[in-house]
Amino acid sequence: MPSLQAFPSETRTARSMPAALELLKPITWFAPMWAYGCGVVSSGVPAGNHWGIIVLGIILAGPMVCGTSQAVNDWFDRHVDAINEPDRPIPSGRLPGRQGLYIAIGWTLLSLLVAAALGRWGFAAAVVGLALAWAYSAPPLRLKQNGWWGNAACAACYEGLPWITGAAVMAATRPDWHILAMAALYSAGAHGIMTLNDFKSVEGDRQSGINSLPVLLGVDNAGTVACVAMAAPQVIVVSLLMHWGFPHHAYAVAALLLAQILLMFRLLRNPRALAPWYNGTGTTLYVIGMLVTAFALRTLLAGAS
Q1: Distances in whole angstroms, Cα of residue 82 to Cα of each of 16, 109, 259
Q2: What share of the chain is helix, strand, coil (3-state, %, to 5)?
Q3: Partner of 201 for a Cys bridge, out of 49, 84, 99, 155, CB 3.0 to 4.6 A?
Q4: Cα–Cα distance between 42 and 300 in angstroms, integer?
Q5: b vs e for 10-33, b when ≥16 Cβ sit within 10 Å of the residue's Cβ?
Q6: Considering its fold, how many domains does the chain have in total?
Q7: Residue 112 in contact with residue 123, Cβ under 8 Å?
Q8: How far apart (Å, rounded) are the C-alpha atoms in residues 40 and 169?
Q9: Using the 8-state DSSP alphabet, how is residue 101 labeled?
Q10: What is the DSSP letter of 146?
C-alpha cells in the first residue's frame, strides 16, 4: 500500500478526516461527559429551560476539552507512541507534518468559543481544563513525567472539574460545599483509574524517561496503589452519605464498592494484562456510584433550599 504522502492532496485530505477523529479519541469523552451530567443532577436545579446549556456543556466536556487534551497528548507523545502504539495517527504518518499540532491548537480555540456561551463559570472551567491539558503533555511542565502529579491533573479534568462545572452552570453560582467535597473525592479515586491506563505504555515510558507509577513503583505495586486510590475515597463517600441522612444511597454505593473490591482481587493477579478488563467492569461500577451520589446531593440541596 502506498504511503499517505503519495496520494493527491484531495485524497490525502479525505483520508485525514478519520485520522483526525481518531486523534480526538471519542471513547475517552464518556468520563467527563458523565461527570458533567452528575454535576447537573447534583445541582438540584430542575432541567426546565436549561436543556441548551446542559447539551452544550456535555459537548464542551467531551468532544471539545477532552478531545483537545487527547490531541495535545498525542502530539507531544508522538515519539513515545512510536514505541508503544505506532499505529496511532501521528506516528503512523496518517497525520503527517504538524497536522496533529494544528488540530490541538484549533480545538483549543474552538473549545474556548463554545465555553463562552456557557457564561463565566463555564468559560472559567474550560480555561482551567485546557490549561491542565497542555500542562499535562507539553513542555516545560509536562506533568505526565511524574505519575503522581500527572495522574492528579488528569483525574481532576476527567471527574472533578466537569462535575463542578455542571453544577455551577446550572446554579449560576459557586457550587455548594457538599458538591465540591464529592467532586474532590471522586477525582481522588480517578487517580487510580489513570494509573491503570498507564500499564499499556510501560516500555515506551521507561525508555522516554516518563515516570508513570508503573515505572516508578513496578507494575504490581502500582496496581495495588491504584486499587487503594479508587476504593478509599468511596469509603469516605459512603460515610458522608450516611452522616447526611441518605442511608439507601450509602448502601448502594457501598454495594458497588464491594463489587469493585471483588474485581480488584482478580485485577491484582496480573494488573498489566487485566487493566483493560477492569476498566470495562470495575470502573463502570465506579461511575454508577457517582450518579447515585449525585442524586443524593440533589435531594439534599433541594431540601435545603
Answers
A1: 19, 28, 37
A2: 80, 0, 15
A3: 84
A4: 9
A5: eeeeeebeebbebbbbeebbebbb
A6: 1
A7: yes
A8: 8
A9: H
A10: B
C-alpha cell at 274: 487485566
Q: Which domain holds residue 107?
A: 9-304
pTM: 0.91
Cell of 182: 464529592
Q: Write the CA distances from 176 to 7, 58, 301, integer angstroms.
A: 56, 21, 8
Residue 2 lies in a domain: no
The per-residue pLDDT for 305 is 59
Q: Which three cell numbers stand for residue 292?
A: 447515585
The pLDDT tens digits for 103-153 are 999 999 999 999 999 999 999 999 999 999 999 999 999 999 999 999 999
In the block, cell 512510536 appears at 82
Amino acid at 53: I
DSSP states of 241-270 as a string?
HHHTT-HHHHHHHHHHHHHHHHHHHHHTTS
* Total count of residues recorded for the chain: 305
Cα–Cα distance measured from residue 75 to residue 67, given in angstroms and rounded to the nearest whole number: 13
Q: How many whole angstroms separate alpha carbon 273 and alpha carbon 271? A: 6
Contacts of 152 (CB under 8 A, 6+ apart): 191
CA 157 – CA 144 distance, rounded (Å): 14
The greatest distance separating any two alpha carbons of the chain, rounded to the nearest whole angstrom, comes to: 66
Residue 3 belongs to a domain: no
pLDDT in tens, 248-286: 999 999 999 999 999 999 999 999 999 999 999 999 999
The CATH number assigned to the domain holding 298 equals: 1.10.600
**Does residue 4 lie within any of the structural domains?**
no
Answer yes or no: are the C-beta atoms of 233 and 256 closer than 8 Å: no
Question: Residue 288 domain-assigned?
Answer: yes
